[in-house]
Amino acid sequence: MERKMLRKALKLFGWIGACALVLAVVAMVAVRNSEALQDRLVAIGVQNNVVAGLVDDWGGDNLEVAFCGTASPMGNGPRAQQCIGVFAGDKFFIVDAGARSAARANEIGLPMGRLNAVLLTHFHSDHLSALGEMHLASWVRGRPSKLDVYGGPGIDQVVDGFNMAYGLDYGYRVAHHGMAVLPPANAGLRARAIDAPETGSVTIYEEDGLKISAFTVPHPPITPAYGYRFDYRGRSVVISGDTKKSNRLAAAAQNADVLIHEVLQPQLVKAITDALDAAEVDALSKLLTDTLDYHTTPVEAAEIANAANVDTLVFNHLAPPPPNAIAARIFMRGVRDVRPQGAVMSDDGMRITLPPKTGDGPGIIEISGN
């Protein structure tokens, strides 16, 4: 009896599956052959995307971080290069703007019209190559003034170069779309020079409860290279910039809620250089080998986080970006021996939310989107 009922149930499920398959095929044929249906589906999809892009729930009472690029120049995976958005109240800053990061910022829904400034840690190309696109993305979304760009000595040269390269583009767009849509007074980048001491830090921005400090980190031959600390409503985020293992960074990050630290995994780099050596690609092998002496390993970053009494350590500027789960496990080798918990790897689209501190206990740290 039970077998008979089972056979009937299986037969029924088979008919249901067959009907579903037929309906799916009919729907596919209809979509392929009906221009009206194609137009309707595209209109619905576009409308949903536009509405989703207008949602702005960033910042408010919280200190928040959005990862709009987590890769180093090594590798050709889907990650954008270095880019970190930081929100505090109605303030919005981006730290570094590597290749593809402006597109990623738009893709994950960052409110580009609110962008106050870009903070450059240093002037390697993978930290600034999308600066022109960041300018355009924020200008067309209504940024109310020129885009401030903070950086160390040499920032004037960088900003002047981008303004010269994109100057014709500014004019073309104003002429085409009109001054009401793209005010020419808001076109262009504006340099904001930072002169941080060799030890300690300097406040570069302080308004409405948000304090941003800059400090130097060792990334020779680049001098100076900077990291940044954001403090807002009792919460704090520190971004290392590119650096070797640094006691200066540990001092600047003392008792921070989140330390976002660049990392290079030497075993994975060696695997790449061994393959390049075998293929006699000597110049590229040397370039990658040279990176070993001015970055920080994941284990070293964990040691810095411990020394700084940081709650959560986030690995970023991944060198090389792990292309699969096996490489990701290699990336984390030895980290748990030094820091059993509180260490995660970043990914594009990851979001960290730090609500205001209440009481004496540890603050809440919410991580999503990775």
**How big is the Rg?**
24 Å
Please identify the top-level CATH class of the largest domain: Alpha Beta
Helix content: 25-40%
What gap, in angstroms, lies between the N and C termini?
50 Å
Q: Hey, roughly how much beta strand do the residues contain?
A: 15-25%
Looking at CATH, which topology of the largest domain would you report?
Metallo-beta-lactamase, Chain A
What profile does the largest beta sheet have? 8 strands, mixed
- Strand line-up in the sheet with most strands: 6-5-4-3-2-1-14-15
The string of secondary-structure elements, in order, is: HHEEEHEHEHEEEEEHEHHHEHHEEE
Shape: globular
Q: How much is the average pLDDT?
A: 91
How large is the count of helical segments? 11
CATH architecture of the largest domain: 4-Layer Sandwich
Secondary structure category:
alpha/beta
Number of strands: 15
Structure overview:
The protein is α/β, with parallel strands linked by helices and 370 residues long. It folds into two domains: 2-45; 60-368, Ribonuclease Z/Hydroxyacylglutathione hydrolase-like (Metallo-beta-lactamase, Chain A), CATH 3.60.15.10. The chain contains eleven helices and 15 strands. Helix 3 (101-107) packs parallel to helix 4 (131-139) and helix 7 packs antiparallel against helix 8 (282-290). It is globular and about 65 Å long. The mean pLDDT is 91.
Sequence-ordered SSE layout with sheet pairings:
Blueprint: H1 2-33, H2 35-53, E1 60-69, E2 83-89, E3 91-95, H3 101-107, E4 117-119, H4 131-139, E5 147-151, H5 155-177, E6 189-193, E7 202-207, E8 210-219, E9 222-232, E10 235-239, H6 247-252, E11 258-264, H7 266-278, H8 282-290, H9 298-307, E12 312-319, H10 325-331, H11 335-338, E13 343-345, E14 351-354, E15 366-368
Parallel strand pairs: 3-4, 4-5, 5-6, 10-11, 11-12, 12-13
Antiparallel strand pairs: 1-2, 1-14, 2-3, 7-8, 8-9, 9-10, 14-15
